[in-house]
Specification:
The protein is of the alpha/beta class. The chain has helices spanning about 20-30, 80-85, and strands at about 10, 15, 35-45, 50-55, 65-70, 70-75, 85-95, 95-105, 110, 115-119. It is about 20% helix and about 45% strand. The strands form 2 sheets. A 7-stranded mixed β-sheet has the order 1-5-6-3-4-10-9. The N and C termini lie far apart (about 45 Å).
């Protein structure tokens, strides 16, 4: 009989602000997915070589590292954790709308639009 490995609850690889938590809760309600986690990962791409991907995930993977804050779960895959150490996940709004922002001290350079980076 095979055992199913549960996701790993570990110390958060990043700081999550109150505004990010509020926005995640808003998105969970809007999408009708109150138990969904925010999945944050880094993938190859963008004009600087690496870019962030953020979406709601209804299912966690066995390899996910889970950070929790105020009832919200943030799932990060093991490969992305190394690039996110000491980063901050925030939500910022202006007259044109809003977006999640990742303040990443590991990024050596980023493109002008701020969507991709190099380490």
């Amino acid at each position: 009989m095979a055992t199913v490995q549960e996701p790993i609850h570990a110390p958060a690889p990043l700081v999550v602000t109150e505004t990010a938590v509020a926005r995640i809760k808003f998105l969970q309600g809007k999408e009708g997915k109150p138990d969904a986690s925010l999945r944050l990962r880094i993938v190859a791409g963008g004009c600087s070589g690496m870019q962030y991907r953020i979406d709601l995930a209804e299912e966690l993977r066995a390899s996910d590292l889970i950070a929790e804050k105020d009832g919200v779960r943030i799932a990060v895959d093991p490969k992305s954790v190394a690039y996110l150490k000491e980063s901050t996940l925030d939500w910022e709004e202006d007259f044109f709308g809003g977006e999640f922002k990742i303040k990443n001290p590991n990024a050596k350079a980023s493109c002008s639009c701020g969507l991709s980076f190099t380490v």
